[in-house]
Design brief:
single chain, 451 residues, mainly alpha, Growth Hormone, Chain: A, 78% helix, globular, disordered C terminus
């Protein structure tokens, strides 16, 4: 019996395709071994460290900045909200750029923009110009978190994807920590402009490091993108992709839940935490700054712990929901605590950060199910929703605290609580939304070494 030549060619073609796929996954597995992925991660996350310092610094410098600009709390909050006004709308474009061009070509120029924002911030006494500098900081910073996450999704295997966002935030937390009590000490010694000028120079150095040390996107990852249906000659139009995302109920639930769960960081930690603790709990500015730092430390530790545990359990939602419930309860406890010992305030702050750390699982759950060639855009959409909320909530907290307060006077503890109460209400709403998201598991990839 003779074999059919067509069938023989088909079998050979299938065998050749299987061998090619085997070789491809082998390349990916070898590239993800050793120290190189960790070195690339550290280089890229240094930018996130830097932008977080620039982002949080105005919360500590607030008294000086309001004094030299003559602005009210509401006006200052509006100017600082420009960061998020630039950051949030940029997300979808940033995601598209990362999907198309990789990390290096996007993050290095972005670091330059943040540095220029710091320079503008340090050289003015006008609240409008402060807002413009803040806008530039937000525009450049919009790349930082997504850039690190996208790089990690390329260079780390899926079994590490839950933990990596937590490690990323840990780097940001270090930046936030340096922008709290240490910045306060430096400001008292050198004035508020000098640290921001140093921050400008650091940004230029980081931009150069990113360009020189980060590689182009590896060819083996581009080929893996083809497995998910990516066609470099005919990529899906961004408008079509956005429409697809907008019709996804689950990604909306994830995004809104993550946005509410992040408010202790984006509103309390970034801007109003020092003022709130100083007025509400009667603590000094130095102690209030130190306690606010604990939120960031707890957030980083909670993100790493929940991410690692979700990788181990191969379940995400249970940890996401638990974190949302606990953080909302702790936020209420903080509102009810205005004359407690320092140690109790410190415990509440670090507990708030720890439980809020589960927010990072929203990004992990999005990446678990997204295709490789549009993963960055979907992550960007989640980040867009997370970061657009503070555009409205940061100034709203300031304006609510000012109700019934004459200009130039400090709000009472009860008036300050009016602004904080908005954060608590939104956190409870996000907890309800977290119950509606679909659970996911770490993505499976078949790494077969070719012989």
């Amino acid at each position: 019996m003779t074999s059919n030549p067509g069938e023989s060619r088909s079998i050979q073609s299938q065998s050749s395709a299987q061998q090619r796929i085997s070789n491809l996954h082998g390349q990916a597995q070898r590239a993800r071994r050793g120290w190189r992925p960790w070195i690339l991660f550290l280089v890229c996350s240094l930018f996130y460290f830097y932008e977080f310092f620039a982002r949080v610094a105005p919360g500590v410098l607030q008294p000086e900045l309001m004094r030299v600009t003559g602005s009210s709390q509401g006006e200052f909050g509006l100017a600082m909200g420009m960061y998020f006004l630039a950051y949030a709308p940029s997300q979808l474009l940033v995601g598209r750029l990362l999907d198309r061009f990789g990390v290096r070509a996007v993050v290095a120029p972005a670091a330059l923009v943040v540095a220029l924002g710091c320079l503008l911030f340090a050289s003015t006494n006008n609240v409008v110009v402060l807002g413009l500098g803040r806008l530039m900081q937000g525009l450049g910073s919009s790349v930082a978190y997504l850039g690190v996450i996208y790089l990690a999704m390329i260079w780390f295997p899926p079994k590490r994807h839950g933990m990596v966002p937590g490690l990323t935030v840990a780097m940001g937390t270090l930046g936030a920590s340096f922008a709290q009590y240490p910045l306060l000490i430096l400001t008292k010694s050198w004035g508020w402009r000098v640290p921001l000028l140093v921050c400008t120079g650091a940004g230029l150095v980081i931009a150069l490091m990113l360009w020189k040390l980060l590689p182009k996107r590896p060819n083996w990852f581009v080929e893996l993108m083809r497995e998910d249906g990516f066609d470099p000659k005919s990529p899906q139009p961004l408008a079509s992709l956005i429409k697809e995302i907008m019709r996804d109920r689950n990604i909306w639930c994830l995004s809104l839940a993550a946005a509410g769960l992040y408010l202790p960081i984006s509103v309390i930690g970034d801007l109003w935490g020092v003022t709130f603790l100083h007025i509400h709990s009667g603590l000094s500015t130095g102690l209030s700054s130190l306690l606010t730092t604990l939120i960031f430390i707890g957030f980083a530790a909670g993100g790493i712990a929940t991410g690692h545990l979700s990788d181990h359990l191969k379940r995400r939602k249970i940890l996401f929901v638990t974190g949302a419930i606990l953080s909302s309860v702790i936020a209420v406890a903080i509102a009810l605590t205005n004359s407690a010992p320092l140690w109790w305030n410190a415990m509440l702050m670090i507990a708030l950060g720890l439980t809020t750390g589960s927010q990072l699982l929203a990004f992990v759950m999005t990446a678990d199910v997204a295709k490789r060639h549009n993963r960055a855009v979907k992550l960007a959409f989640v980040n867009f929703v997370v970061m657009v909320l503070p555009v409205f909530i940061q100034p709203a907290v300031g304006f609510l605290a000012q109700i019934g307060v004459a200009k130039g006077l400090v709000p009472s503890p009860g008036q300050e609580l009016q602004g904080y109460g908005l954060v608590v209400v939104l956190m409870f709403i996000s907890t309800g939304l977290s119950l509606c998201v679909k659970d996911t598991k770490p993505r499976k990839e078949k790494f077969v070494i070719a012989h």
